Amino acid sequence: MELLEQTIAKIERLNKEKMAEAQDRLDSLTKPPGSLGKLEEIAIKLAGMKGEVFTKVDQKVHIVMAGDHGVVEEGVSTCPSDVTTQMVYNFLNGGAAINVLARQVGAKVKVVDIGVANEIEADKIISRKVKAGTDNMIYGPAMSQAEAISSIEVGIEVVQDLIADGANLIGTGEMGIGNTTPSSAIIATVTDLSLEQLVGRGTGIDDQKLAKKKEIIAQALELNQPDSEDGIDILAKVGGLEIGGLAGVMLGAAANKTPVMVDGLISAAAAVIAYKLEPKVSNYLIPSHRSVEPGHIRMHEILGLEPMLEMDIRLGEGTGAVLGMELVEAATRIISQMATLEEAGVAANK
Question: Whole-model pTM?
Fold first, then answer.
């Protein structure tokens, strides 16, 4: 708990003075003011994070947190839990979609075993297992409060080490069969929307399994009664270890003034947990895309953020986050490399 408290205490507000300077710089460039839309908004936000008008995001690292879920026993997914282990090995061998996209944008992929049910035997894995999967949340809390805190602190430690090694843009991704179920439970806890409005098909479940999934979430919420204002209580009662790990990544990066790409539903659920612990964390988050999962939109509203892309992505792994990295780097290049009206000898409109 000490590391978590220290990390939260370090998270600062955005530097408004540098954001104003960045705005002035962008308005002086050879383009109509605001004509590059979200690219300009990102450049301004980065200036506020780093306290510098000209920032770099040339050392991209994407973190995939992996963990299993006891609730999969209830048939909420089309896949068995063993697929989590199989996909972790696929990530480590460079064969997954996230690996392909990360290579395209020049990002390193780091895979963390924070809660996989099976042992992962591979040199490349970052082994920080809190426990071998969560407990089935329809019979009690998914984990203890101590385990929830441990998962968050694992994320903090992992991202701190990566930033110390030079990382200046962090991606968030996950692997955990069944994890749209706890993510939907988290959203349901912090909103007044019904499960009919929030719960999606995850890996592509049919109508029967979707109805079952909603029923399971309702049972878990009724039994556990998570406190909607307490991030640790929500995480412990209806969350996931990889969700806690990603929340820790976001908090740790924010404490180090480093931007974080938020992926889809699961990463956004982690962002909500982090936000409940320290609202200023949202200043350091950049949402990549709007997922087809219905609850995803609601979480962006809670965080006060608007995604860059809408591409019907629902794979997970952080695929949207990595795609978004290219746009964030584009924003840094626009503000630093584009000529001003004065430099180019272009007359500004009066």
Answer: 0.96
